């Protein structure tokens, strides 16, 4: 697989919409980018599908389009032509498509204004979105220790979620089950503990697969700030993690 027009389009899409993962992909070896860019571009498309319209039915149809494309990939037959689905179909396996279908299904929560049912529902949402995405990337690059990857993914997902809370609230969503200072701090502390656990077990991840975990490099500063000063979440005053990410990514660390 070469960097054709589709892969370049995927890279440009990620650069515009997901700068954290774009930086992570650019810190990865070139061969890994051929997987990461279509995978992250897919995530961009799915994540924004519920937000480009006020009509729930249209948003559902947009998500269903991606589920149909993933079903084609899972079956191993012809896949609809698209600048994201075409390179994605070359980069992932049928079992990956099944996990990504769960990711798309989880994004249906974003369409509506219902609260999460309970803590288990919220954790499942984070695991099926951030978790499935990172695990697909990691195992395609050779990782076998799913627990370590999902710990890093959970921390990454919670950090991104905390940064998004002001926008979610402005859009009429209820992003947290416990939005008190204590609740926010506890959520961030739990995610930070899982990040520390993942880092302590970094050696279980093959070198070639560590590029998939590089998005976790931004999580630490965000989570620590939310633990220490949870009011910064609602004030959109969490730290810009780009400097910290750049320093860690230079050493391929997360």
Number of separate strands: 0
Given the structure, what is the number of helices?
12
Strand content is: under 5%
Instruction: Tell me the structural class.
Output: mainly alpha
Given as residue ranges, the uncertain stretches (5+ residues, pLDDT < 50) are none
3D shape: globular
Elements, N to C (H/E): HHHHHHHHHHHH
Backbone CA Rg: 17 Å
What distance separates the N and C termini?
A: 27 Å
What does this structure look like?
There is one protein chain. The protein is an all-alpha fold and 254 residues long. The chain folds into two domains: 112 residues, no CATH class; 140 residues, no CATH class. Helices cover 67% and strands 0% of the residues. Helix 1 crosses helix 3. The model has no long low-confidence stretch (mean pLDDT 93).
């Amino acid at each position: 697989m070469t960097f054709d027009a589709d892969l370049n389009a995927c890279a440009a899409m990620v650069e515009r919409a997901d700068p954290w993962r774009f930086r992570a992909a650019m810190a990865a070896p070139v061969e890994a980018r051929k997987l990461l860019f279509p995978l992250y571009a897919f995530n961009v498309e799915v994540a924004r599908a519920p937000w480009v319209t006020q009509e729930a039915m249209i948003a559902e149809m947009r998500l269903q389009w991606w589920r149909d494309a993933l079903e084609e990939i899972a079956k191993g037959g012809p896949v609809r032509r698209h600048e994201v689905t075409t390179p994605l179909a070359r980069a992932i396996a049928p079992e990956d498509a099944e996990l990504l279908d769960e990711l798309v299904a989880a994004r249906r929560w974003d369409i509506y204004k219902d609260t999460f049912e309970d803590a288990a529902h919220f954790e499942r949402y984070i695991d099926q979105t951030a978790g499935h995405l990172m695990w697909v990337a990691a195992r395609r690059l050779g990782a076998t220790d799913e627990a370590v990857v999902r710990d890093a993914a959970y921390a990454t997902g919670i950090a991104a979620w905390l940064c998004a809370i002001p926008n979610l609230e402005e859009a009429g969503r209820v992003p947290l089950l416990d939005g008190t200072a204590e609740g926010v701090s506890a959520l961030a502390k739990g995610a930070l503990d899982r990040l520390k656990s993942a880092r302590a077990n970094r050696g279980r991840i093959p070198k070639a697969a560590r590029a998939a975990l590089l998005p976790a490099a931004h999580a630490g500063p965000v989570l620590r700030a939310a633990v220490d000063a949870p009011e910064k979440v609602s004030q959109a005053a969490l730290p810009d993690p780009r400097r910290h990410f750049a320093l860690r990514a230079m050493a391929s660390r997360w």
